[in-house]
């Protein structure tokens, strides 16, 4: 019986290692996320900002001067219960046309996923002041008197009020806080955006659409004459934003 020489054994191990590496590469995929925006089907970009050209469900004409929002914890869940989470956050800044597309520095195993989702805003475990230097410098912090943490969205512009005057609005979403009670009472207003079941067969790009008009119409018809500014300390307004946000995002396409 022939003995395996040390040289042959080393060569065999090297071949098997290469084979395993190739299998790992084949079984993993890169993912990317691309965010686009519309107003009831009409594409919106920062070139459309600072022009009163939109009309909400309540009949108010308005412009957009700022739109940026936070997403976090992109999650891939299998029917077996196995979960893969891309931790971290992304500040999508339509105003400056930055971070509309991003590819996390992580791969996802190929296969069928019963749900792909992300969080709008931060969950309570992540929503603490001082944690994120880049968000601090982006003026994204919520004051301590309102519970601290970070904004989920800043949507600003001007609208024509019921006296035909041009008035500014600031539709800022945060965790809802009731300052009329001691101690303060909070209600969670981050929410999960479910993109549905997806099969990852190759490197995959998700195109996600935000219909900005939905923030003003469903299920709460938004009256900018009443709710235009000082909305961060307005508990009921924050809950209404949370409710309207359930219909804002949709999955436009998946490219592999």
UniProtKB/TrEMBL annotation:
UniProt-listed InterPro entries: MbnP-like_dom
Domain Copper-binding protein MbnP-like, residue spans: 29-225
Pfam families (alphabetical): MbnP (PF20243)
The protein's name in its UniProt record: Copper-binding protein MbnP-like domain-containing protein
């Amino acid at each position: 019986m022939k003995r395996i020489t040390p040289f042959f054994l080393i060569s065999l191990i090297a071949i098997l290692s290469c084979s395993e590496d190739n299998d790992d590469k084949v079984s993993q995929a890169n993912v990317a996320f691309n965010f686009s925006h519309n107003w009831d089907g009409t594409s919106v970009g920062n070139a459309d900002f600072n022009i009163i050209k939109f009309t909400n469900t309540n009949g108010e004409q308005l412009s957009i001067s700022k739109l940026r929002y936070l997403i976090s914890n992109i999650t891939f869940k299998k029917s077996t219960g196995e979960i893969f989470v891309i931790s971290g956050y992304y500040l999508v800044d339509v105003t400056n046309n930055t971070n509309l597309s991003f590819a996390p520095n992580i791969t996802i195993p190929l296969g069928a996923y019963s749900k792909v989702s992300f969080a709008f805003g931060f969950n309570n475990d992540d929503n603490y002041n001082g944690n994120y230097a880049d968000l601090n410098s982006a003026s994204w912090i919520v004051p301590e008197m309102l519970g601290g943490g970070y904004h989920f969205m800043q949507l600003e512009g001007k609208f024509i009020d019921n006296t035909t005057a041009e008035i500014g609005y600031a539709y800022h979403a945060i965790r809802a806080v009731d300052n009329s009670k001691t101690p303060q009472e909070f209600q969670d207003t981050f929410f999960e955006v479910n993109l549905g079941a997806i099969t990852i067969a190759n490197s995959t790009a998700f195109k996600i659409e935000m219909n900005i008009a939905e923030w003003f119409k469903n299920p709460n018809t938004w009256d900018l004459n009443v709710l235009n500014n000082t909305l961060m300390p307005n508990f009921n307004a924050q809950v209404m934003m949370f409710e309207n946000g359930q219909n804002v995002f949709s999955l436009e396409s998946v490219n592999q």
